[in-house]
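Entry: Acyl CoA:acetate/3-ketoacid CoA transferase subunit alpha
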Amino acid sequence: MTNRFEKVVSLSEALTHFRDGMTLLAGGFGGVGNPPTLIQGILDKGVRDLTLISNDTAFPHIGIGKLVTEKRVKKVIASHIGSNPNAGAQMTAGELEVEFCPQGILAERVRAGGVGLGGILSDVGIGTIAEKGKQKIVLDGKEYLLETPLTAEVAIVHAKKADRFGNLVFDTSARNFNPLVAMAGDITIVEADEIVEVGMIDPEEIVTPGVFVNFIVQSEGVNWQWAWEK
């Protein structure tokens, strides 16, 4: 009998959940914490017209930057795109829609989506072009912008270690947006460097509990060269 809590699947099975035109949440910061095997699988499958929600667009040939470089993304919601000149060029040419969001607000919007909040209130951007199209709310005499929650059809996460029930440990700074992203996908797919049996992770080490995780795939390792390795 198959254990209903078993979440480890093949890459090919995980890729059945990706389709053209979908919304994709990706953990990572400048490529660090982006899941390389899942990203390569998306490229190989030919998925396109993605709406990508992530902290940034990485670098041209690193992490989710590859999806932008290959023009698989139609819209980005991110805090910045400056490290990927291809994103800037596509935005200028009208080929890529970009919605900018301050980094802290972006993180909170993803968290709000993950925990089911209707949004968050922030005074960042009041009186600037950033307030365009946003609802204003007055609370205790102070004006705020309503920042709406962010979710996605699929969230992709890179973990250092996962057990077969989906409990996750992250590698130092690769923790970044990954725990928030893991909560906010209708389906969350984790790429893990190491998959261990249940009980082999100290409960005190677990950052993301398995309740947020739907599927786990074995990582094939980073398939790009980092800027500092050149």
